[in-house]
Design goal:
two-stranded antiparallel ribbon; mainly alpha; 452 residues
Length: 452
């Protein structure tokens, strides 16, 4: 692959520079769309082909599916629809100039190229040993017993929000968004719940109680993800479906029943809007042409994240607390003991929307965010650092996938990534980072032996 990866990278770079040249001459958005789609398809093919894991549904594929939908969705819709690919209407209206379009495509494609290079520029681990630390079974059992209650709390919190949305209107669940921050215990509890589910996956073959609790917690997790769509989070619902698909397929040989299962999963995704409409979070699917629904609602609307990234590039001055919250999960809780924290200073996404349209923010709407947005914010507009972040993100995904079969710690870490990675192109990395910290602490906590 050494020669092939360089040929691929040269091809992807040549493709985008030629496209930018033609766009400069003819100013046609379709040129940028086609070139970016070509790059995402080639990146996906070679990353999946060279992924070190044995699973059918690769981790890198799930990430690139999210990238293709949320970052590149509008480019796919642009092939068939006469739409404003580079415009955003969200309490304000803004269209990128030709110069800004060039910068956008340049950044997105270079991010993809460097991610691909980081993923392919690795050597597969050849050891067959699977190192799993012996746990303190008492600690493991106690935490396993507690875990369904954590999941139950998260599910109950979702139920309360849905009930409020149905009785008072969907936007009522965001009515305090423009006020002073109050700590969200639910997010912490959910992170602990998923961390314990990952731990149970590691030990489910060795301890029967871990297998029982893992299956129970997967069921609770799916209910939580299903409830998330009623709160308007379709990406969380789809991430849950992808998680189930991965668990079901893993490294099995493909048979007709597996194909039918995957098709049924994808069919469920198309009904996400209809589920969300029950609480008023979304409008139900209309009777329009099915192909048009896919292009408009799935690719064009979900591809709005590309424009959110662009607006973040154009407005890249953020409060220090937004940076600290990503690096140190939960720091806002301690900070709030001494100072009032307004929600518009808490995250990059909140701050961006508050500056662009304060009235829209106060009504409870949100722009969303992306991993690329985090990388650009932390690079402070310095291109080499932005590209370096993307390169090492590719390295990290390869290492996580490669060490899955060789180390118990990485098996659980893989599960943590699996539950979050699809949504990373629609949200900040802060949720995954907090999950990693919780999981790491719990994993080594249960590895401590009690002194006799």
């Amino acid at each position: 692959m050494n020669l092939n990866k360089y040929v691929l990278l040269v091809f992807m770079l040549t493709n985008i520079f030629v496209a930018l040249l033609f766009f400069h001459l003819f100013s046609m958005d379709i040129i940028l769309s086609v070139s970016t789609i070509i790059n995402i398809l080639f990146s996906g093919y070679y990353c999946v082909k060279n992924s070190p894991e044995n699973h059918i549904f690769k981790l890198v594929l799930i990430y690139l599916l999210g990238f293709g939908l949320f970052i590149c969705g509008r480019f796919f819709s642009n092939l068939f629809l006469q739409s404003d690919t580079f415009c955003l209407e969200f309490g304000f209206y803004y269209c990128l100039s030709d110069e800004e379009k060039i910068k956008s495509i340049f950044l997105i494609n270079l991010a993809l190229v460097f991610f691909t290079y980081g993923f392919l520029n690795n050597v597969k681990k050849t050891s067959d040993n699977n190192i799993i630390l012996d746990p303190n079974t008492n600690t493991l059992f106690i935490l396993s017993v507690i875990s369904p209650f954590l999941g139950g709390y998260s599910l109950y919190s979702s139920y309360l929000l849905i009930s409020k949305a149905i009785s008072e209107g969907y936007m009522s669940i965001f009515e305090s968004q423009d006020g002073v921050y109050s700590s969200s215990l639910g997010l912490i509890v959910f992170a602990l719940f998923v961390s314990m589910m990952a731990i149970q996956y590691v030990y489910k073959e060795k301890y029967k109680f871990c297998l029982i609790f893992f299956r129970l917690n997967v069921f609770i997790y799916l209910l939580i993800m299903l409830s998330s769509v009623l709160q308007g989070s379709r990406s969380g619902f789809i991430a849950g479906l992808f998680f189930v698909t991965w668990l079901y397929l893993q490294n099995k040989k493909i048979h007709l029943k597996h194909i039918l299962f995957v098709l049924s999963i994808f069919l469920l995704m198309f009904f996400a809007n209809d589920l969300a409409s029950l609480s008023g979070a979304r409008q139900a699917t209309s009777d329009n042409d099915f192909f048009l629904i896919i292009l408009e609602d799935i690719f064009y609307n979900q591809g709005t994240t590309m424009m959110v990234f662009n607006m973040g590039v154009l407005n890249d001055s953020y409060p220090i607390l937004a940076y600290l919250k990503v690096l140190i999960p939960g720091i806002q809780i301690f900070y709030s003991f001494f100072y009032d924290i307004y929600n518009y200073n808490l995250t990059f996404s909140n701050n961006l929307l508050y500056r662009l349209s304060p009235s829209t923010f106060s009504q409870g709407f949100g722009l969303g965010w992306s991993l690329l947005g985090d990388f650009y914010a932390f690079s402070f507009g310095f291109l080499p650092l932005f590209l370096l972040f993307n390169y090492y993100w590719g390295v990290v995904l390869y290492k996580i996938s490669d060490r899955f079969n060789h180390n118990g710690f990485f098996q659980g870490l893989f599960i943590c990534f699996l539950t979050q990675i699809f949504m990373l192109n629609r949200a900040s990395i802060s949720g995954l980072w907090a999950l990693i910290i919780f999981y790491t602490i719990i994993y080594f906590l249960i590895s401590l032996k009690s002194k006799k």
